[in-house]
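hey so u asked for the seq, here:
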Amino acid sequence: FPNLTYSHVSGVGYQDQPAVLKLTLPSQRTSCEIEWYREQNGRGCAHLLNSDPDLGALLLEQLAPATSCKQLVQEGKDDEATNAVADALLSLDHKPAMGTEFFNVRGFTVELGKLSGKVPNELLNLALCQLNDSKRDMNCDVLLHGDLHHDNVLRHGRKWVAIDPHGYVVPRVFEVGAMMRNPYDAFPEGSLVDI
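ran it, structure tokens below
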């Protein structure tokens, strides 16, 4: 498949049906991805057909036509693209996470601290405040996709579905973060974004 970043992804046959084999490095991230697919059970995403976390292997339902939501942005249809990501987001089951293997986004406070002096302080402080504010009511924590951006939302028949989850735990409002920062290489004409 084109536009791959970290994993090898190929079309394969599985029980006389087309499927997708994703191979990546075995890691906690891969285990979280597998568990996220299990938790979703096909709701708003590709079905997980089989997996082996020790091998870093996922066998997924093949989506068709599998066109990326990013294509809408490239065609100048930014509003349609936003609606597509929103449709995918709303179809996911954002339920309380039962497993302990998922990463809690509040742990990013340590990572954000490493950006001191590299990004504007007011932006960094705002991000840290948002994470700290989210600690007030941890009863709102749910399992998020965690990387729901335009390249990770694909058309499947007449609906838009999510792929390549990270599996984070945090209040649901954080799910829109990845959409807001993507796509990096296809900002709409006349965008006010200063790169």
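The first strand starts at residue 8 and ends at 14. Strands lie at 8-14, 17-23, 48-52, 57-61, 65-68, 103-104, 141-144, 153-156, 159-162, 168-171.
lmk if thats what u needed
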